[in-house]
Amino acid sequence: MCQGVFTASVPDVRREGATGDGGQSVRRSEEAEEVEVTEKDSEGVNLEGLLRELVSAAQLYQSAAGVRARLTPTELAVLVILRARPRLAGQLAVATQLTTGAITRVLDGLERRGYVVRVPDPDDRRRVVVTAVVERLTALDTLFGPMSAAAAGIQATFTPAEQRVIARFLTATGQMLRDQTDLLRGGAGATAAPVTLEAPLGVTRHARLHLAGGLRRLTILDGGPDLPTDRLYRASFSTVPTIEVVTQADETDVRIRFGRRQRAPWRGHGGDSTLTLSPRVDWTVDVRGGADQLLVDVPGLPLRSFSLTGGVQDLRLRLGTPREPARIALTGGAERLRLERPAGVPVRPRLRGGASRVVIDGEDLGSQGSGGRFQASGRGRGGYELALTGGVTNLEIATLGPSPRARAG
């Protein structure tokens, strides 16, 4: 079903009101219509059967398109991923659930036929950045053009309210299929109840957190009343990872790794996984292997630095005022990145790969090219340096607002 990425841009289903009331009448009408859509004919519809037919038809189409383009389904899937932005080879291996050797062979074939190019990562030449060749993707657009036009015609027959209902269903179904694929590939790894893990604080005043294996959905919190004062961290996972705590004279290393068979539980089938860190020590956080959804809600945590390698779909950072200049580094690109910090704390972004849209404290700066440097409010040498390598679709820097924890409670 990867061909959908090669379709034309989907029309915006939001309608601005032309009634003089800012569109409120239209929105109220659409909300009422949406309720009617969700309730009407809800009985007697075999959605599971229709979904099976849709998946089967998509597989047949993918097979036929692959034959015409002389590409395997895996090669098509890789090109779909690369269409959004360049990726690290390791990130592609995680996304396609292939071994390092297998993804290397796939990339070898795509590079020989001119679909991709591979170059060393400028920040770490041991890693390889893979970029799709635009001209070859344009040829694929031509191949998928008739399907794109037909899909757009079908979409036009539905009202905006109906489209929103369909979008919610497809989004939830897509996530379900990814979860079930992980379970089939990884075996039964999830436990019936969350596993709570923790470690003593000790006497060190600096800690390093290493997370590896590819994250799906994780929330990192600063310790509140629920975290005992003598605990370094407390974690709630739906499977047991490999954890190693190494205590030295001046710092403590916390290394948490999930292997290939343990990745699926990070999706949090029964709720998000959480990791709570003690605010009584300075922290350095390093995430390797990429992430889907990651919330770092630590305004009360002394954070020295945060790094993420392998790309991220949705990252939200809620940070406090650092004691000294702190560095935030992302390598591998990002779809959505929102950084919140207290008013007056400067943020100095540095982009390698550009950004499709940048919003700073409510001001929309539009797109920014590679190499762009600008500062988000505040003065002085403190604050945060934000280094982004691999491009970002939506970058927002904002003043620290209410915690999602407070709203959830």
The ordered string of helix (H) and strand (E) elements is: HHHEHHEEHHEEEEEEEEEEEEEEEEEEH
Percent of residues in helices: 25-40%
Overall domain count: 2
User: What is the radius of gyration computed over CA atoms, rounded to a whole number of angstroms?
Assistant: 23 Å
Low-confidence stretches: 1-20, 22-40, 187-192, 260-271
Count of alpha and pi helical runs: 8
Q: What form results from the Cα inertia axes?
A: globular
**Order of strands in the sheet with the most strands?**
4-7-10-6-12-14-16-21-18-19
- What percent of residues are in strands? 25-35%
**Mean pLDDT across residues:** 79
Through-space gap between termini: 38 Å
Largest sheet: 10 strands, mixed
Indicate the structural class. Answer: alpha/beta
Number of strands: 21
Structure description:
- 31% of the residues lie in helices and 34% in strands.
- It is an alpha/beta fold.
- Strands 4-7-10-6-12-14-16-21-18-19 form a ten-stranded mixed beta sheet, with no helix packed on it. Strands 8-9-5-11-13-15-20-17 form an eight-stranded mixed beta sheet, with no helix packed on it. It has a three-stranded antiparallel beta sheet with strand order 1-3-2.
- The longest helix is centred in the middle third of the chain and has 27 residues, at 160-186.
- The model is unreliable at 1-20, 22-40, 187-192 and 260-271 (pLDDT under 50).
